[in-house]
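re: that chain from earlier
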Amino acid sequence: MTQGDPAGIGPEIVLRALERAPLGSAARPLLVLERAALEPVAARVAPELIDRIVWLATRPRREELLALAPGALPAVDPVGARRAVTPGRSLAADAHGALAALDLAIDLALAGAVDAVVTAPVSKASIATHAAPGFVGHTDHLAARCGLERYGRDYLMAFLAPDLQVALATVHEPLTEAIARLEPGMLLEALACLDRHAGGRIALAGLNPHAGEGGLLGGDEPLRIAPAVERARAVGIDAHGPESADSLFARARRGEFDWVLALYHDQGLIAVKTAAFGLATNWTLGLPFVRTSVDHGTAFDLAGTGRADPGPLVAVLATTLDLLAGRLPRSRGAAPRPPRA
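^ sequence. v structure.
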């Protein structure tokens, strides 16, 4: 479990989620948090956890983690610097700390020390400004660190909600650029990725109102979107569409489709967050390990107040355990598939 931006609500929700949802024998959490961020927050919101925290070397081995006494809460400091964290204000040290925690967690997962990475929210702007120019979010950074291509890729950002499962063909980029990238080959790769890692009946959203209304409202659907569906079906993928986006998500919630592949960020995320804000899990398909996250941001306005809600992270932890056990994603038309090893 990473700290996210240490000036945000990440450290607080991590600790409070572990209070509310002790994992017991189901899994052992490993906290990747700066000591400078964790200890002051623990003293405020979870003092009973302080005595359970066991600080380990930066790169513990799996055997070392499994040998710890029951009830121990192992933690590693990705930075090791003595400093003060100012809640609600992300400075250069916070950006570097957030990225260091993420990179260390990725290293531990790639080394086999941990099975899953659960990330608290980061500030993209702060990291891009202070630590990694060009940083646009967890998903692309994770994929790059794991050697996956950004486009022509075998990874997707996806969201698991109680009655809606949505993946995104494009992620954090300006809408005009996202739309310009839409073409049959790229969409076919996204459909194939979603089929390979999740399966089931996949509906590809249309771009224009009413999916173009047969060409009356634009020619994107017949020229750029429908060919991807046709090619996907030709190789055995249960793909449908392009479907009118104004009703597609309601149809998926009723059970007509297992997955919606949205064309751009807000097309998918408005539906997910309207239907299940705080209950959805961000899941990165295609990585060599399970990676999940909450569906909200750093909430700098709540940082340090003790009022951050750990409920969304509690839901993410439960979903993560289901993914590790092969119980998700839910496919009404196909057997659930475990994540790829």
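Residues 87 and 150 are 33 Å apart (CA to CA).
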